Amino acid sequence: MKHSMVVVTALALVLALAPWGAAQAGDIATPPDLPGTAQASTAIDQDPAVAQARHGVQAAVHAAAMLEASPYEWTASTSAQRRRIDGSGTSDEWAAQLARTIRIGGKAALDRELGEAGVRQARAQLGAARIDAARSLVDLWLDWLTARQTREALQEQGRFAQANVDAVQARRKAGDASLLELNVAQGDLAAAQRQLSSAAAAEARATLTLQARFPQLPLEAVPLSEPLPLDRDATHWREQITAASDALHAAQQALRKAELTAARARADRLPDPTVGVFTASEAFRRERIVGLNVSIPLGGTYREQSALEALQQAEAARAGVERQQRELDLQIATLVADSATSFTRWQLAEQSATVAREGVRLTQRAYHLGEADLQTLLLVRRQALDAVNAAVMARSEALRARYRLLVDARLIWNLATP
Q: Which domains are delineated in the chain?
């Protein structure tokens, strides 16, 4: 108990010193039953969804450079003609022009801001992809450790069942037990072995699933650690996770892009002119022409409807931010509540399992001494098995709830968006 209090106090101190900004959140020590920061970061960064989002950032950077440079290019054109003049012969003539459309009405600045917003959105999406991969890593890793620990608990129960068979056989040789008792004990052993086989298969499935999602991650089995109670209230967790939420940041940047797109569409109702210079040679090369031309599209219904469509897209993005905020609030509240209640459930389940283990030990001893019958022993053993399995699952769920909080708050594995 003293050791647990020291651990809790130390963790509270670390969290108190950790900054509570989005990208500045400091990591706490990685829990001992999770992969280390270096291993987890490598596995997360190599996840296909994260790699896809990383390429999305590079694409956004190039898109921003395109907008910075302008969508318009220089256009060169040339023409040649032969003019025949009655009584004067034939004149070979030519003309050349260089023209480019020019952004006016502040469109260049809007395009630059659009590019920057696109890069910020892509980076937020990369952060969200890393968080999703980290959540999957926590879940799959705990699934594997839980399956492994369940299998180990069933192995222990199998040893108890074998000890029961050995005890019945010894008592039968001494004339103290019937053949029926031996059959019942052997049936109980077979049931324990069947449960152990199912647990081993479940562990194998959990291992394969973990390796399929994170093939580069080394599997180092450790016991599930003791859950810790929440050391901060729901308000602190909400502030921390909201400030760090890349999914919310991505929605906010999508809104910013939609607003800029609407402003760009409004500005585009004033068409951009195309300005060109040209030169020509005519009249038997005796005439040299140099000139300037300007062409302006006449805006109409298309540009007007485009501006209205962009406004509605901005309103849709605004609603998306509100939806994302509400979903995030619900997610945080659920995580905090799950972490608190699952810790209490684990404590109760652990107490029950401890009492059940002691009951099995005492009943087993009583049976060996002839002070308890076989049916009582088997009943106590089954109750203990249920209690131990419930304790393992309660421990796993308590750890899962807390680790999800730590992941969403970017407090482990250097998950803050670079």
A: 33-408 (1.20.1600.10)
